[in-house]
Amino acid sequence: MDIKLLLNVLIFLIIGIYIQKIQCINFNNLKEADLIEVDNLFNNWNDYIDTKQRIIIGCFDSDNGIEYDNFIKAINSIESLETKKGLISSKKYSTIFNSNILNSYLGKKGINDIYVEAPEILVFKKDATNHILKYYYSADNNFREDSISKFIVESASEPMTKLEDIQLIDNYYYYIDSDNNHASLYSMEKPFIYLNLKNLNNKYISDVFNVLRQFKNQFNVVYTDENNFIRPPFENLKFSPLSIIKNVKKRGLEEAFDSSQFSDSYVTTIYHYTENMSENVYHQDLSYDFLIDFVNKYNNNTLIPQKPKKHFENQLNNKVIEFKYNDYVLELNNHNFIDVTGDVFKDVYVLVYYPWNEEYEMIKSIWNELAKNLYYERNNIILASYNVLENEVLNTEFKSRNDYPEIILYRSQIDDIENNKKKIIMYRREAGVSYETLASWITYTSK
């Protein structure tokens, strides 16, 4: 019995070791699958660069560290996105474990303004003026997989391209070089500058491109010379000469459902040049100084964004509801009240009022300012108003009230998606109605 037991144990050990070896072989093959030998990469350097491909080099002390492992994971995740639907990734990856050899290679290519020390990741690409652009991710960073992925995607994206070369595939934006089907992923978190040459006076083109070159690392620059067949999120910009488009990941949806179900899993905020010029400046004047001022205002968060869209899409049943904004406050009425306040993904704050009330007049300007600031910072929040005089009071518990204004929160059901009734929270007016107290209450009560 003892001998038979011993034999069984030995058999299990041998099988376990064999399986582990197979797993190691498969893992190592996976790790090396997308890498080019550094010698081959530099031998084909000019071909890669001249055909708008990106060169990504990871320099590490060895292939056993966490930095190397996360680099491999990051490039595999990017490759899986850039090889969808028959596309070919525009990126060429390589690794090297001797920084002195890499510095020597770069010196032979005339790249002498970078000195590499492991661990470090470098991205090289050519811009529209045939200059080599260089980006590096060094030991000052944390070398997390998501951080590396973000760096590679942002650094390797096309710096300036025609809008017609951008495609939306499964909620990701790609630059696709139609000559060779090479795909380059855009970072949705990196803002776009949109330029419509059809609406731009020729005398400003030189100034515009000088400014764009100056901020080329900050923005994805897209341009077009037509006003037809413009794809989202640019379709509403037909008559704008220049705009900044900022995409912000919608918070909350991924906690309730798979966010990929929703085409608007990113919230788009648009800043138009013509809407942000001072009154004494001709709005189509896109000369250098005014353009610099526009970008600086964006960086200082002082631009005025485009007003919200004219339709509200309920995420639960895809019903499109007509609505109207007064400044940045959504005006509710008998027709849209239930649909808007019943949106399970949003905290809806409603200011219920009589229009002649003096206290309402005091709150109105504060409510508008809060709505303007919160609409773009917290896309899961709606600030609305409801005129009791012009509309039926839909909530029976409020029918006998005569002391409006009242502020009511119809709270998001993200944490309780099966419940078909939203929780209602009333604001205690004795706490005061200053900007600070209302902002604090909204911050405290929102999801």
Automatic annotation (TrEMBL):
**Family, per the entry?**
Belongs to the protein disulfide isomerase family.
Q: Name one GO molecular function term.
A: protein disulfide isomerase activity
First and last residue of the signal peptide = 1-24
Task: Work out whether the entry's keyword set contains tRNA processing.
Answer: no
Naming one, the record's GO cellular component terms include: endoplasmic reticulum
Question: Keywords on this record?
Answer: Signal
Q: What is this protein called?
A: Thioredoxin domain-containing protein
Any one Gene Ontology BP term: protein folding
Which InterPro entries does the annotation name? Answer: Thioredoxin-like_sf
The organism's superkingdom is given as Eukaryota
